[in-house]
Amino acid sequence: MKILQTITVNQVLTVTSKNQLLEKYKKQYSQLQKEIDQLKFEMKKLEKTKKFQPTTLKKHFEKEISNRSEKIKLLDFQMEQLDILPIGSELKERDVQAIIDVEIGTDWDELMKTKTIVVTDGKVTEIR
Questions:
Q1: Whole-number Å distance between alpha carbons of 51 and 45
Q2: For the chain, which residues score pLDDT lower than 50?
Q3: Which of 13, 73, 87, 125 is deepest in the core (most CB within 10 A)?
Q4: Nearest-CA neighbor of 70 among 29, 99, 100, 42?
């Protein structure tokens, strides 16, 4: 019988991966800032058409702007933490699903232990 099991993938922080993560965070930050600017522009544009109630319109746009602002704050925090982390630290990158064979006599406790794949600069370096 086969079952699905969740496996954690950890990334070892190297100079290269640290720079890649920082660039990724900066791109996300920039994208969110553009979205906020676009939302503000759209809100002003729709306010002038007077097709929608101003309070409802403003509430909707402010909610969307607020959501993106929160994401920006989270990105700021992540960039600060990344700066603090020493090279060689392990960061949880994601969880993946694996198909595991289960047969009569399989040690269930051993099978259910959390498994981890460690990746360094895009290459699997360890499976625990």
A1: 11
A2: none
A3: 13
A4: 29
